[in-house]
Predict the structure.
Amino acid sequence: MIRRLHISNIRYFTSCQRISNQLRRNDEKLESPIELAKDSHFPFIKQNLYKKQPRQPTKKAPFLSELEDDPNHIYLTNWKKKLGQFVISTFNMDMDRTRSGPVAGGIYFAECKKQALYYPNEPLSNTAKFYYETLRLPQSFSQQVQIIILHYWILSVRMRCLPYKYSKLYQQKLVDRIFEDLNNRMTIELNIKSGRLLEGNLKDFHTQLLGCVLSYDEGLMTDDITLASALWRNIFNGNENVDVRHVEALLVYVRSQLYVLSKMTDRAFGFGKFKFVPPDQIVQPITKEQEEVIKQKTKEEFQDMTLPSQRSVLSMDE
């Protein structure tokens, strides 16, 4: 279900360095994405995207992540944990491969999903307010999908810098869980019972994902104008009346996430340590010395992880 893109680590980090340099040149004027978006005073012109009002959720589907919040989740007893460690050690299991499921399909899936998640008559999260109140995007299921795809792409840029055999696993696990969740939500929340309609929607979403990844990649490897154009077409639905300041705010948000990811080691990212930076926060560029301090702290953190299930070959230096 995933399209394989061959982008070298060197080109990726060169692009991230370009982002870093842009941030440094403007460090005296740094603003959070929310502050940037609020600078505008243009009148809002509502875009007419739908022939009829889009379906709204009538109930909640299971989140499909964060099992610790599930009262029916079974926790392992000490003897079962010890047995598991014994099995892993005896059969010399590749834990980086095994870990790709719970990390990419659990932690990072949850990060993608919750950014723009909303339910009628429930308060919006601060991040959801950024999309629906600050950027004035429509509250619809299809809009949520576009925002999920954007966050998937941000993560996939970093995933593609992992060793190849783990890179494709992390991407695949994340994509699989996203589409499993979309299917469940359309069935439960939107009450779509037609199998043909569900299949058609999923195919459309998959086509959108491939198109978005291609257009965002082009922007990442060329310039910010191209990336901003891709964000305008996909997130802002090609709205001719969109406030350019809003597009700029989202561009800065994306730049910030990529910059943070470029400073993470493979080991930290592979263990699910990344969280999206909220849009009300500013990402300050760090020096080489600060970057080395972060790497050293990462090494100290993982130094105490000696259980067989905590083994990893992922780098702590890059």
The chain has a mean pLDDT of 87. The chain is about 60% helix and 0% strand. The longest helix spans residues 195-221. The two ends are 28 Å apart (CA to CA).
